[in-house]
């Protein structure tokens, strides 16, 4: 019960007590007044009767006495009239019951005892006592009048109480409105939302409460921001290059291994290797500051080129080397972009030095296919840069393959996606305690290749993206998942949506309609890649709220590697996060990775967000995750993805 309702109940209780006391006092006062009226009424009747009956009483004329008494008694206001002679011998007695109206309830009669007094008058005639007359008024009259007064008093009390309660309620709600704001603050704080009240009440006690709550909200927000900033500084020191802000060698190689050797979902593309030859001479010719500016220019131009791809991998792997894994597969486009990059950087060098003397920057690129390992791919890209150096040309790149074969594969993938001819594999996310069942299973889309053999997502996802069929693929996956969940009420499946689907309002509305008031909604988990979340924070936050209303869980995949940080967790507030596998790969041997993951877990748990680790392969990694209080793990340590 709210404090306003409790106070209203207390006020009502006081009013009821006050009314009961008022009715009691009024009844007692009215009772006394009515008894006095009955005394007066009886005394007056006795006097009048005595004046009239005096000669008849002296003559003992019973007929006249009886007629007169009956005539008065029939008026209905008397309970007993008794006429006695001078020796107190009865001459005539007329008696009836109290005659209380049926309108007066019995409980009221039993509660209040009214006994009208018997009034007497001595009668004299010709200076001699003729007798006495005793008159007792009827009690029913008093009960009727007292009950009528009580009824009216109670009715007015109820009316006035309701009116008073209404106005008191409005007044109290106005006075205590700041407490509602404090309640909203407390609820928002439990949901990691920081709200400050701008209206400060004038009441001293409420003012202090509101000011104290605002201060606490500011302190909690400051603590969270400082904690986030501290962890981002740790990540910057451990995984980012100080000069360029790009991923350093360790982080770049981890991400490259993760995407190519483990996830294998990047699809065809190319790896660009940019090499600044004779870096020491560059420092001598330009000076340290200008040389650093040139290196920053290289990083900046590569970042601009990376924006042409979806989820590229870009980093500085040594003082003079950069790599960029991108989705460009067209040889002409690749050559054109790299030549433009080389010319831009040559102009930057010329502006810094004034000439192109001793300028030596070479770019090599090699095509990437799913069959290559990250180690071989990097070696081929370095060989391409060395070839450019040997030939003294700025750019050297290899072609991607046979266009006819590509066209045939594109058509095959298009037909499969449009017809919905896909099947699902899944991999469980398990709690670190093996005594419990899977938390949920992540569903992966698969198709058959032209030889009717299952192929991994990395073999066709890039084609799906090029054909703008990612939303169609996500719909097919969700429809298949829905059918599986309907057949298996105990199963929970997670689906990773693409960036294209999240930006498509029609798709989001379709998904909400599909899950609205459906039992499968509570069995479904929707996941988004961290990059997709950061690119559409406001829309993702709205989408997440809609999913929450339907009971669908929401998670962030590949968490912790984006240089933009993770303060977005406060806005999106997912149910869980999955730490990217590149941060887990060396967890059992790297103190830096363990410290960073522990920091991520601390941040997430402070926001009531579950933390799962991706791509766990070894028991030693599981032991490290247990020590870091991670909630669950996913990877080949629990088995490879299997067909549902």
Which strand order does the major sheet show?
10-11-13-14-15-16-17-18
**What structural class do the secondary elements suggest?**
alpha/beta
Biggest sheet, in brief? 8 strands, mixed, barrel
CATH architecture of the largest domain: Alpha-Beta Barrel
3D shape: rod-shaped
Residue share in helices?
40-55%
Number of strands: 19
Radius of gyration: 48 Å
CATH level-1 class of the largest domain = Alpha Beta
Measured distance between first and last alpha carbons: 49 Å
Under CATH, the topology of the largest domain can be stated as TIM Barrel
Number of individual domains: 4
Count the helices. How many?
Answer: 21
Give the overall pLDDT as a whole number: 84
- Poorly predicted runs: 400-405
CATH superfamily of the largest domain: EAL domain
The proportion of residues in beta strands is 15-25%
Pfam family, one: GGDEF
Keywords: Membrane, Transmembrane, Transmembrane helix
Protein name: EAL domain-containing protein
Transmembrane segments: 6-26, 154-176
């Amino acid at each position: 019960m709210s404090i306003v309702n409790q106070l209203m109940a207390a006020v009502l209780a006081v009013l009821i007590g006050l009314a009961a006391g008022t009715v009691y006092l009024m009844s007692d006062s009215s009772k006394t007044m009515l008894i006095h009226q009955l005394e007066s009424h009886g005394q007056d009747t006795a006097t009048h009767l005595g004046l009239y009956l005096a000669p008849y009483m002296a003559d003992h004329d019973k007929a006249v006495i009886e007629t007169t008494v009956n005539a008065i008694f029939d008026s209905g206001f008397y309970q007993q009239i008794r006429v006695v002679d001078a020796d107190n011998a009865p001459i005539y007695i007329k008696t009836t019951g109290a005659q209380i109206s049926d309108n007066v309830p019995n409980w009221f009669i039993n509660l209040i005892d009214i006994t009208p007094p018997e009034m007497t008058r001595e009668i004299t005639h010709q200076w001699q006592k003729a007798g006495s007359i005793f008159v007792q008024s009827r009690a029913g009259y008093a009960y009727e009048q007292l009950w009528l007064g009580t009824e009216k008093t109670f009715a007015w009390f109820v009316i006035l109480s309701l009116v008073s309660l209404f106005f008191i309620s409005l007044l109290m709600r106005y006075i205590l409105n700041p407490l509602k704001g404090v309640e909203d603050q407390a609820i928002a704080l439990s949901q990691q939302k920081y709200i400050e009240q701008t209206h400060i009440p004038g009441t001293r006690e409420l003012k202090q409460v509101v000011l104290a709550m605002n201060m606490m909200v500011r302190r909690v927000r400051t603590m969270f921001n400082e904690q986030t900033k501290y962890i981002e500084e740790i990540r910057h020191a451990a995984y980012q290059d100080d000069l360029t802000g790009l991923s350093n060698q360790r982080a770049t190689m981890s991400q490259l291994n993760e995407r190519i050797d483990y996830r294998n979902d990047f699809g065809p593309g190319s790896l660009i290797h940019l090499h600044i030859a004779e870096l020491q001479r560059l420092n001598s010719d330009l000076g340290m500051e200008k040389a650093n500016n040139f290196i920053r220019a290289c990083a900046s131009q590569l970042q601009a080129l990376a924006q042409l791809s979806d989820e590229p991998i870009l980093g500085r792997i040594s003082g003079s080397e950069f790599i960029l894994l991108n989705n460009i597969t067209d040889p002409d486009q690749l050559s054109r972009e790299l030549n433009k990059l080389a010319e831009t950087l040559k102009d930057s060098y010329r502006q810094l030095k004034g000439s192109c003397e001793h300028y030596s920057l070479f770019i090599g690129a090699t095509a990437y296919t799913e069959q290559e390992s990250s180690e071989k791919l990097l070696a081929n890209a370095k060989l391409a840069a060395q070839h450019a150096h040997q030939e003294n040309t700025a750019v050297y790149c290899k072609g991607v393959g046979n266009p006819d074969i590509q066209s045939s594969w594109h058509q095959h993938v298009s037909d499969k996606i449009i017809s919905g001819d896909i099947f699902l594999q899944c991999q469980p996310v398990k709690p670190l305690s093996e005594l419990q069942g899977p938390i949920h299973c992540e569903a992966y889309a698969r198709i058959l290749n032209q030889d009717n053999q299952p192929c991994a997502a990395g073999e066709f996802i890039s084609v799906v993206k090029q054909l703008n069929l990612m939303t169609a693929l996500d719909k097919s996956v969700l429809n298949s998942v829905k059918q599986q969940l309907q057949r298996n009420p105990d199963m929970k499946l997670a689906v990773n949506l693409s960036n294209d689907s999240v930006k498509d309002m029609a798709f989001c509305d379709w998904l909400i309609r599909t899950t609205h008031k459906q039992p499968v909604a509570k069995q479904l988990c929707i996941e988004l890649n961290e990059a997709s979340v950061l690119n559409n924070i406001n829309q993702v936050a709205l989408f997440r709220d809609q999913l929450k209303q339907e009971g669908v869980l929401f998670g962030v995949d590949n968490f912790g590697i984006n240089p933009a940080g993770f303060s977005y967790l406060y806005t999106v507030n997912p149910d869980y996060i999955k730490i990217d596998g590149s941060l887990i790969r060396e967890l059992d041997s790297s103190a830096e990775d363990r410290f960073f993951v522990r920091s991520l877990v601390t941040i997430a748990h402070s926001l009531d967000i579950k933390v799962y680790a991706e791509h766990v392969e070894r028991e030693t990694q599981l032991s490290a995750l247990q020590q870091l209080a991670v909630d669950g793990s996913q990877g080949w340590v629990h088995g490879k993805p299997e067909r549902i």
